[in-house]
Amino acid sequence: MPAVPALNVALGERSYPIVIASGLLADGFDLAGYLAGRDCLIVSNETVAPLYAARVEALLHGRAVHRIDLPDGEAHKNMASFSAVLDALAEQRAARDTTVIALGGGVVGDIAGFAAASYMRGVPFIQVPTTLLAQVDSSVGGKTGINHARGKNLVGAFHQPRLVLIDTDTLATLPDRELKAGLAEVIKHGAIADAEFFAWLEDHVEALLARDAAALAHAIRRCCEIKAAIVAEDEREEGRRAVLNFGHTFGHAIENSLGYGEWLHGEAVAVGMLLAAELGNLDDAARARLRKLVAAAGLPLAPPALAAATLRRAMGMDKKARSGVLRFIVLDAIGEARVDANVPEARIAGLLSRAAG
Amino acid sequence: MPAVPALNVALGERSYPIVIASGLLADGFDLAGYLAGRDCLIVSNETVAPLYAARVEALLHGRAVHRIDLPDGEAHKNMASFSAVLDALAEQRAARDTTVIALGGGVVGDIAGFAAASYMRGVPFIQVPTTLLAQVDSSVGGKTGINHARGKNLVGAFHQPRLVLIDTDTLATLPDRELKAGLAEVIKHGAIADAEFFAWLEDHVEALLARDAAALAHAIRRCCEIKAAIVAEDEREEGRRAVLNFGHTFGHAIENSLGYGEWLHGEAVAVGMLLAAELGNLDDAARARLRKLVAAAGLPLAPPALAAATLRRAMGMDKKARSGVLRFIVLDAIGEARVDANVPEARIAGLLSRAAG
Fold first, then answer.
1. Is B121–A145 a contact, with Cβ atoms under 8 angstroms apart?
2. Is-catalytic flag, B227?
């Protein structure tokens, strides 16, 4: 097959390519060339594996391929799934050069990545994301982990993949609800870092919902470019990387309070962005544009029926907090985000009680 | 109290001091000054906590101190204990600036360190080792983890502490068997890296067994110096650091095959060193010196009654292996170690069948 142009996540000796194209799984991409040793473990789930596992295995001819299919859904992003992947690795007598391949959405990628980070204190790892959300966000940047009853993504590791392989054709099988949820993270990238891309999204949200291949490919590439640049600047989120969490403090609290899996991550982030837009210095026109775009993407505009106190308590487990002080990502304009550690408690309470009704 | 001289583990922005002295816990060492935020979690066990937890808590006056006591012993260095520490952190609503303090031996340090590495993808961590083995080896260098039914230390992370606080007075309460087990790792440091220290140990092994304070302090300091230098050179064991595993390929296989906790780690390492000494280019005189020193330390000289095939199979899970090829640490002389990836399978089989009878 012809060479496919790749983005690069520039992290010194941990740098890696993001390959984005249509037909990668069908057309014989040289995935085996990215394995570190003689064998690998494909981590997938019961929904995705029947659709794509055989194709991925075909790209690995000549290698010892093992596979584990996890139950599908955010509710299973937990210690039991993490343990199951570790058990599978031990069972196949995996060594330090065994490669873990995550084939699925963000849940699969996060669990598989955390297991790859932890097995023998770190084995090589490849992401093959099959949902829009994973393709534009969670597969890039090395954040891995599982949920805890007390907090979303509360346990995990930074562990960069050695390749992110995005075959845009996999979006053909994605349910509409998941496509929309992925659009929330697409909108986020524009909102925090690129006003021009945000304007493009306003013009192309219908095309994206209609799964126009060119529009999807452009959106995925632009999000990966934005995320790769931010991650290259601040791999371990000691500063600027935190802006990628726009909408996530509220969003994670919604997911945790409802029970993981009730709302999709992207749905919770959509509402979280609208709440966070009330903070910062966004003018009314900009706030209206954000709201309109979220609505056009078919995403929820208000949180589910939850007590404000419940949400506030769940927000207390946000990983950005320091010694009890919450740190919000706020916008000063479309495309301009910053961390604000000085949002008055009364402001948060007011926002939540108005929103949560 | 007067300033205590400290060793430094030189790892750039991850550098940290190892403070070694008598009376640190009793004399008001400024432990609170090393906390990152307002609160901490002391991870200890049911044996050590009654002896020393109150003293450590006294050094943290003014801070919010939480504590979890794990069951004692290698058999509990597992996923359940790891989860229990994470639950405790979530329960106290720990933030990214909460400090985890490991108070105990190597098992406590390894579990607490892995939990600190994983909670919120990494929170600060302090080691207060109370066994000789932990003071001379496991508390320094950032290796953390838990055992898996299939392999010792199979799951974990590299996570450097911000301080290692060694109060040599804690050795007063250490059972004799544990003291001897610690001496195995002391002997290892001489054997792999310092012929002069090895000779000193030959002269002072009786004093160490008699718990002579000056002798113990010297041995601990020298081991920490040796380990700090090796770790500074190769933090993530991509090369030279592997020599610290001298005796551990055989040793881990013994621990795993017997069931964790049957033999102490140091006991298994003692036998493992004698087996590994049969490989490499050690002359008979040097091998005899190693054997004599291990015997003088009251450590076992032969593996437990296990089938050679059982041990060989357990060795297959050694983390140094690559694509099924074992890599042994061998000695060319006392004080000179290297990695050997070319030990013929027949050599290993012969060694095991002779040793295991």
1. yes
2. yes
Residues A283 and A157 in one domain: no
- A297, with CB counted inside 10 A (0-12, 13-18, 19+), is buried
| Whether pLDDT at B288 is above 60 | yes
CA B114 to chain centre: 14
| B161 plus B201 within the same structural domain | no
Query: Domain count of chain B?
Result: 2
DSSP designation for A78 = S
CB B150 within 8 A of CB B313: no
Decide if A75 is inside a domain: yes
Inspect the interface and report whether the beta carbons of A90 and B150 lie closer than 8 Å. yes
With respect to residue B1, please indicate whether it lies within any of the assigned structural domains.
Answer: no
A138 and A184 together in one domain: no
Residue A1 lies in a domain: no
Contact of A322 with chain B, judged by CB distance below 8 Å, is answered with yes
User: Quick one: A73 and A184 in the same domain?
Assistant: no
Residue B1: pLDDT above 70?
no
Residue numbers in chain A where pLDDT is lower than 50: 1-2
In chain A, where does DSSP find H-type helix? 49-58, 79-91, 106-118, 132-133, 176-193, 195-209, 213-233, 248-258, 265-276, 284-296, 308-315, 345-356
What pLDDT does A278 receive? Answer: 95
pLDDT digits 0-9 by tens, B82-139: 999 999 999 999 999 999 999 999 999 999 999 999 999 999 999 999 999 999 999 9
Note whether A224 and A237 are same-domain residues: yes
* Residue among B190, B107, B148, B189 nearest B319 (CA): B148
Region B165-185: mean pLDDT is 97
Q: Please write the tens of the pLDDT for every residue from A110-126.
A: 999 999 999 999 999 99
Domain of A198 in residue numbering reads as 176-356
Q: ipTM of this predicted complex?
A: 0.96
* pLDDT over 90 (residue B3): no
Using a CB-CB distance cutoff of 8 angstroms, which residues of chain A are in contact with residue B83? Answer: 79
Chain A residues with CB inside 8 Å of B97's CB? Answer: 322-323
Q: Are residues B295 and B185 in the same domain?
A: yes
How many whole angstroms separate alpha carbon B222 and alpha carbon B192? 13
Across the interface, do A95 and B37 touch by the CB < 8 Å criterion?
Answer: no
Based on the fold, state whether residues A199 and A103 are members of the same structural domain: no
Last residue of a domain, one of B138, B171, B204: B171
